[in-house]
Every structure is written in C-alpha cells, then in structure tokens.
Amino acid sequence: MIQEFKDFIAKGNVMDMAVGIIIGAAFTAIVTSLVGDIINPIIGLFTGGVDFTNNYAVLSGEVPAGASLEEARKSGASIFAYGAFVMAVINFLIIAFVVFMLVKMVNRVKAAAEKPDDVAPAVETGPSQLDVLLEIRDALRK
C-alpha cells in the first residue's frame, strides 16, 4: 500500500497539480495587489473616490451617526452591508478580467511557440533523383 502511494505521488499529474496550486497561491497575491493597489485607485479617480465598502443599512439596533462599517458591526447592531458586497462583486469582475487577459496572453505565447517557422527561406534544390536518372538514360541512348 505504501508503494502504491509513492507511485501515486510520483506521477506527473499529482506533481503538476501541486506546482499549479503553489503558483496559483502566489499569483493570487499578485492579482490582489494589482487590483487593490493599482486598478482600484485608478477607478477611484474616475468615480470621484467612491468606495462602497462602508455603505450599509441598519436592520435593528442602534448605530452612532456616521459610523463606519466596522464600528457598526462592533456596536452589535444587525446591519445589511450591501456596500461590501458591491465592492466584492466589482473586485471579482476586475480580477476575472485581469486573469482573462493573462490567460489570453499565455495562450498567444504558447501558440506562437508551437507554430512551425514559416519564415524559413525556401531552399532551392537541384533536379530530383528521378530527373537525373532520366537524363542519364537519355544520354546513354544516344
């Protein structure tokens, strides 16, 4: 049973999957930083710095006026945090688009690597072996 487990682990698919998960975790950090540190501030410029994260509705309980979402949550009131959900949806759409663009780029590079070189100049070859043999035959007949 131990040998079967070793064989299973040593298979290429399991190792490829493990590498993919590790790279995926590192890639998640890069995409999250790209969205949070670069793309969202640019979007904030166009929307006038609108951030929906702190938008909420109080369902029951008391919340001080002008309190942030965290303060409202700490007060123990029942709140409907629709702004955090809206921002999560916006972030998801941005991340999905960035991942789409990266996959599209990787597929383009992969296709270019697999494409045969069409740029190689055509090599001018002499007569074929059959042509040479026919010439020899004709010369011997004379």
Sum up the structure in keywords:
68% helix; elongated; 142 residues; 2 domains; 5% strand; two-stranded antiparallel ribbon; single chain; mainly alpha; 5 helices
Q: What overall geometry do the principal axes of the alpha carbons give?
A: elongated
- Termini distance? 81 Å
> Care to count the β-strands?
2
Whole-number mean pLDDT: 81
Question: Largest beta sheet, briefly?
Answer: 2 strands, antiparallel
Spell the H/E element sequence. Answer: HHEHEHH
Count of discrete structural domains: 2
What can you see in these coordinates?
By secondary structure, the chain is mainly α. It has two domains: 1-49; 51-120, no CATH class. Helix content is 68%, strand content 5%. It is built from five helices and two strands. Strands 1-2 form a two-stranded antiparallel sheet. The longest helix has 35 residues, at 12-46. It is elongated.
Give the SSE layout:
Blueprint: H1 2-10, H2 12-46, E1 57-60, H3 69-74, E2 78-80, H4 82-114, H5 129-141
Antiparallel strand pairs: 1-2
Helix pairs in contact: 2-4
Q: What is shown here, in short?
A:
With 142 residues, the protein is mostly helical. It has helices spanning 2-10, 12-46, 69-74, 82-114, 129-141, and strands at 57-60, 78-80.
